[in-house]
Structures are given as structure tokens and as C-alpha cells.
Design brief:
The protein contains seven helices and 14 strands. With about 250 residues, the chain is α/β, with parallel strands linked by helices. Strands 6-5-4-3-2-1-14 form a seven-stranded mixed beta sheet. Strands 7-8-9-10-11-12-13 form a seven-stranded mixed beta sheet. Helix 7 links the parallel strand 12 and strand 13. Helix 3 crosses helix 4 and helix 6 packs parallel to helix 7. The longest helix is centred in the last third of the chain and has 11 residues.
């Protein structure tokens, strides 16, 4: 598998990165994990939108899904789409949420996306075996494990400390984990991880590598990385445009 970081800014686009969007490729199949705001432009530096075979949205907060709207625009009006619908996997209500984001009248988007509602479970998507787990977040959000060619990648989406995410990541080759919270007292529960907590999840799961992501522009990313490395040395920081072999 190959992982490309399209955007990795947490909670909103930053000055140097769009919000969350990652491409995972195997056997010429291209899967987009999240389409956060600002990501569609950067996506086109990596792949033609028409070559994206499927989309997985961890949840329906704007920094993870809002650029589904320009994805619709491209498919409808660029003249470059082949007319096929793109499978889109997301929590219940994604069809209404994305249609409203595109058009306040909420017209259908089924000419572009074939939307499937997800929950905890497993299925096959192209070359990938997919397994999901509900995370600790205020809205319905699903971490995802992708396995192909004997390798495995887990993406947390957004989560606070979560035993379910640790179990999902057990023995994975790469854990792509959010770390939006700086170390501070009285952090709201069930929302985000600190850098240290991302490292603790990686260590508890016994993963091979940790990639720290979803750090907001107002949080010091190097401090988040240092906190993760203090408990899990095989950690690195997600950077837009970076390509990782899993």
C-alpha cells in the first residue's frame, strides 16, 4: 500500500495544509480517506479526481467531508468525468449532509456518489479488507483499518482516548493518528487525543509506525510529535504531499 498525505491540518485548513485528506493506493485502486475543506485543490496535484475509485469519510464534520462539494462540481461540469458514480462510505446521513453542503436546497448527489451508510463492521472494497470501529467523538465517527498485500494501515479519524481504536490498530504496520490537543489541564473528554495519548495508543496496539496528524495550526506540531515520541519512538509527523510506503 501507498499512503499520500493530501491534507493534515486539524479542525480547519491551515496556512500550509488543507484539512484532512489522505489517499491510499494498492493494485491501481485509489481510495480517498476524508475530503476535508481545502483538500480538493491539493488532491488534483496527486491524482485526477476521475481516478479516485472510492471515498471513505470518517465523519461529517466540515474538516473531514466538506470538499465532497467541489468533487461533485468537477464530476458534473469539468467534461472529464466518465459518468460512473463513485462509491462513498460514510456515517448515516452523509447523503443529506453533503447534498446540503453543495446546494442549500439539498438536491440529490446520486449522479456522482453511490452513498453507503457505515457502522462498526467489515467488508471488502476493491483490493482492501476494511474494518471499522466507533471512536470517542461527539458525532458518529469511525476509525478504519485497511489491509491489502499482507500490510495494514489504521486511520483514527477523530477520537478521544479509545480502547476500540487500540483494538482496531492491534499489530498494524502504520497507525495514522490524530493529535489535536496540546497537553493542558481539564481537556474536554471524548473529543481529541494529545500527542502523548497518540503515542500511548500506538504503544498499546503494538503498531510498527505512528504518523501523527490532524494538528491544528494553532498547536505546535513539533511539541505534539515530541510528546508522542516520548512514549513511542517510531513516530513521525504527517506533512502535506508526503508519500509513505506502508
Amino acid at each position: 500500500m501507498r499512503l499520500t498525505v493530501v491534507g493534515c491540518a486539524g479542525s480547519a485548513p491551515g496556512p500550509d495544509s488543507p484539512a484532512s485528506c489522505y489517499l491510499v493506493e494498492h493494485d491501481e485502486f485509489v481510495l480517498a480517506l476524508d475530503l476535508g475543506n481545502g483538500s480538493f485543490g491539493a488532491l488534483q496535484n496527486v491524482v485526477r479526481p476521475g481516478d479516485v475509485d472510492a471515498v471513505y469519510l470518517s465523519h461529517l464534520h466540515a474538516d473531514h467531508c466538506l470538499d465532497a462539494a467541489p468533487f461533485v462540481v468537477w464530476h458534473r461540469y469539468s467534461g472529464q468525468s466518465d459518468g460512473r458514480t463513485v462509491p462513498l462510505y460514510a456515517p448515516v446521513g452523509a447523503d443529506r449532509r453533503l447534498a446540503t453542503a453543495y446546494d442549500p436546497d439539498g438536491g440529490p448527489i446520486d449522479d456522482v456518489f453511490d452513498v453507503t451508510a457505515i457502522g462498526p463492521g467489515s467488508w471488502t472494497l476493491g483490493p482492501f479488507e476494511v474494518t471499522t470501529a466507533r471512536t470517542a467523538h461527539p458525532v458518529e465517527c469511525y476509525a478504519v483499518r485497511l489491509t491489502a498485500g499482507g500490510r495494514s494501515l489504521v486511520y483514527t479519524g477523530d477520537t478521544g482516548p479509545s480502547d476500540a481504536v487500540v483494538e482496531l490498530a492491534r499489530g498494524a504496520d502504520v497507525l495514522l493518528a490524530e493529535a489535536a490537543y496540546p497537553e493542558a489541564p481539564d481537556l474536554p473528554p471524548g473529543l481529541h487525543l494529545t500527542g502523548r495519548q497518540a503515542g500511548e495508543h500506538a504503544a498499546a496496539a503494538g503498531v510498527g509506525r505512528l504518523i501523527v496528524t490532524h494538528v491544528p495550526s494553532w498547536v505546535d506540531a513539533q511539541e505534539q510529535l515530541a510528546a508522542a515520541r516520548a512514549v513511542f519512538p517510531a513516530a513521525e509527523l504527517a506533512r502535506p504531499g508526503a508519500v509513505h510506503d506502508v
